[in-house]
């Protein structure tokens, strides 16, 4: 009897596994089709704000997918699936080209020069000619290389002994683009690589901002990370500020740039255009918005 029960559970477990795997395969198939045509993929843009001037310094391009039947699927769900099914390379190239074309349009529409940041998956370094792709998108669009920022995560640095990562990053720097280390502090690689690789920016993960105004220890950790970035000559960017107190703390700690829902969520290009054209301080706009006037 015990054996039967065990067997039963085993079968149920297997069936559950199959379903999850099947779902992933289905999503990967739909994603492949979406890439080929007009099936709900789009790029949203989230402004980055300079903490001294309060002005928009740039935008991060973030992929969105409105699935025809399943509704909106967040990137935290479909990006890992794209990564495990090798779709991420085509997807990543598509986002890069869309985002740079969009940023060029804003420039042409009279917007002040602003950076466009694009997330790059490690697979794009390993399995594609990223340098050639970036070069061709810049040439095709005529977009200034120094306004393109590529965001890479620490997961990339696991295989640092291999020269490929080093040489690709070096070649990208030679093109004139900006390099950012994304989600800093959440990976598991050693800190040594920070002195060895040509990163211009340190993007501090949201987990270090969250709770920093309520805990002295968390605030000290944040201070340390910002100091580390500054000491190494990098621009520090805080991800995920949601409260005015967090913005104030980040400013006090000398962080350079902030990206967070407090200023703006990722939005479609037509709405982001308002931020792109904005000459004045967005921080003042925020202050004006929160002034109780009714
Ligand atoms: P990421 O590159 O670290 O992007 C920042 C994430 O933080 C975005 O999540 C953004 O919406 C979110 N965020 C910004 N401000 C706040 C805030 O104040 N509060 C909270 N709670 N969240 C905030 P999103 O758009 O869901 O993207 C998640 C991740 O998916 C990205 O993290 C990135 O790793 C990946 N991703 C998105 N688009 C692409 C892409 O085109 N290519 C690749 N390879 N990855 C992408
Ligand atoms: Mg990013
Ligand atoms: Mg991040
Ligand atoms: Mg991330």
TrEMBL record:
Residues of the EAL domain: 24-280
Portion held of the full protein: 446 to 739 of 748
Organism: Hoeflea algicola
Protein name as annotated: EAL domain-containing protein
């Amino acid at each position: 009897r015990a054996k039967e029960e065990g067997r039963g559970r085993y079968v149920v477990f297997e069936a559950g596994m199959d379903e999850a795997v099947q779902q992933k395969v289905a999503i990967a198939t739909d994603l492949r089709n979406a890439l080929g045509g007009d099936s709900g993929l789009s790029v949203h843009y989230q402004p980055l704000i300079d903490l001294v001037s309060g002005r928009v310094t740039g935008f991060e391009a973030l992929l969105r997918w409105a699935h025809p039947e399943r509704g909106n699927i967040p990137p935290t769900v479909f990006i890992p699936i794209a990564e495990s099914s090798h779709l991420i390379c085509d997807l990543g190239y598509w986002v890069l080209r869309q985002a740079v074309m969009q940023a060029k349009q804003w420039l042409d529409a009279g917007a002040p020069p602003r950076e466009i940041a694009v997330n790059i998956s490690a697979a794009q370094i390993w399995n594609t000619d990223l340098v050639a792709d970036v070069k061709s998108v810049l040439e095709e669009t005529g977009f200034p290389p120094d306004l393109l920022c590529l965001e890479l995560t620490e997961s990339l640095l696991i295989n640092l002994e291999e020269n490929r990562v080093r040489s690709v990053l070096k070649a990208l720097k030679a093109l004139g683009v900006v390099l950012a280390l994304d989600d800093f502090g959440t990976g598991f690689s050693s800190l040594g690589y920070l002195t060895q690789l040509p990163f211009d920016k340190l993007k501090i993960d949201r987990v270090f901002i969250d709770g920093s105004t309520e805990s002295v220890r968390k605030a000290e950790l944040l201070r340390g990370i910002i100091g580390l970035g500054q000491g190494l000559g990098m621009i520090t960017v805080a991800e995920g500020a949601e409260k005015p107190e967090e913005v104030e703390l980040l400013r006090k700690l000398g962080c350079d740039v902030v990206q967070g829902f407090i200023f703006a969520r990722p939005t479609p290009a037509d709405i982001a255009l308002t931020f792109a054209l904005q000459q004045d301080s967005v921080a003042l706009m925020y202050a004006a918005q929160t002034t109780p006037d009714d």
